[in-house]
């Protein structure tokens, strides 16, 4: 997308606004499938927690993607978007047995990540095909909040508990059809990922009726110029060779599954805001915008850096700005960032706004959540409207008159 297209969309739909480039999503999907083209049975399950708009789900469904879901609500959204139940994986954490049973009744693939629920579910439903999530105790991720494979993580069944796991499966006669792992987001070193994969291969040897191995995702995408990213092509070359060799050892052609979220949608997203005020203090120039961490929380939550472009004045002289939001709390998008000169009324574009931006948005300070637009075939399609005051009141119930007297 060009800056002129983004500016036109803010004129058409207002600001703040999220915009997603369909072509970038498609190119990322095709890049991943091409990298693993040497694997006969490859399946991509989009991790929809990154961006769960139904239109995005439909776009990926048309490309052949399945879904990775983490809640019953995500499962329902996937079914609403037209996915067949068998194309949906359900990998919850810390949910009740009742929720898992309810999802199982919908016909989706269940992935269980703790021994207690595994034993209870297996005792009641021994014939249901189940996948098991293993914690390989391999550290990955650019922030502790998104590293989920380390030894202190709440996710997965510890690889050191494998004997206990095998005993539960033998006692319940469960039907284990898959083994899964996920080390965390922002994988920098593919050798670390390959090391974790070997742990998964060793664990898989304990189960004789497997149909697939799910290697999770967490592939890093670039967030700024010359930023490092996961070398998908190199990973595809090395892991494909090792996976194919394991299938021969196992004596059966298995399916290789990935569940990318950020990799598919992050770079496709732009978040557009308008500058409300330029505020000069004794040491800082603030650019205050019509948004806040209620719309893009990642910089405050993870310390994430999103490149900020002044698309109203892209060739202006660069100055240092701290870009801040309108939330009544510390609300900083960037500190002392070099950006082409900003004036009140300019439109700023935050890159990498496709993943974990709208999906983590809130109504903090009773602010409305923005609209979402899909840019496809040279046209902007509104795929979620701006919220209104009526939306804030939805589900709120006033006190009865007699209770206020």
TrEMBL record:
Pyridoxal 5'-phosphate binds at residues 218, 356. One of its GO terms (biological process) is lysine biosynthetic process via diaminopimelate. Keywords: Amino-acid biosynthesis, Decarboxylase, Lyase, Lysine biosynthesis, Pyridoxal phosphate. Pathway: Amino-acid biosynthesis; L-lysine biosynthesis via DAP pathway; L-lysine from DL-2,6-diaminopimelate: step 1/1. It holds the Pfam family Orn_DAP_Arg_deC. The active site is at 328 (proton donor). CDD domains: PLPDE_III_DapDC. GO terms for molecular function: diaminopimelate decarboxylase activity; pyridoxal phosphate binding. Residues 23-266 form the Orn/DAP/Arg decarboxylase 2 N-terminal domain. Its cofactor is pyridoxal 5'-phosphate. It catalyses: meso-2,6-diaminopimelate + H(+) = L-lysine + CO2. SUPFAM superfamilies: Alanine racemase C-terminal domain-like, PLP-binding barrel. Homodimer. HAMAP family: LysA. Specifically catalyzes the decarboxylation of meso-diaminopimelate (meso-DAP) to L-lysine. NCBIfam families: lysA. This is Diaminopimelate decarboxylase. It comes from Flavobacterium frigoris (strain PS1).
